């Protein structure tokens, strides 16, 4: 169950583009330059000498992420099925906190069957459901 939780957290944080928790970082982009042929996602040098990391197509915009967090905050779940999930969501700062195994388990297995229509979520969650 902990492996599944870690996998879900990594995918969720990467898609939601959570600062300091996403796996889409500078080192990953440098590796992608070497291993993949994705010119649109490679780091681009700027005039001041710093590297610019273009927004990935699989990550949500802040507006879309806020909508997802608002949806999770307003989600009504019966007692006994992670009914305290709304308390774990902070829609203003865009964070999930204090999620132990049970709410995480319910979120992983019931989120794909809900009516959340976003191409990157549909793709990542279908991959997750296929793996586990």
Automatic annotation (TrEMBL):
Superkingdom is Eukaryota
Query: Which protein, by its recorded name, is this?
Result: Uncharacterized protein
Protein's organism = Vicia faba (Broad bean)
């Amino acid at each position: 169950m902990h492996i599944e939780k870690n996998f879900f957290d990594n995918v969720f944080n990467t898609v939601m583009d959570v600062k300091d928790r996403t796996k889409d970082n500078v080192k990953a982009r440098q590796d992608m330059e070497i291993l993949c042929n994705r010119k649109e996602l490679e780091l681009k040098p700027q005039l001041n000498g710093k590297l610019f990391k273009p927004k990935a197509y699989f990550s949500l915009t802040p507006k879309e992420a806020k909508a997802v967090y608002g949806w999770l905050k307003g989600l009504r779940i019966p007692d006994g099925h992670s009914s305290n999930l709304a308390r774990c969501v902070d829609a203003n700062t865009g964070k999930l906190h204090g999620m132990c195994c049970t709410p995480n388990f319910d979120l992983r297995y019931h989120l794909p069957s809900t009516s959340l229509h976003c191409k990157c979520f549909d793709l990542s969650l279908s991959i997750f459901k296929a793996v586990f």
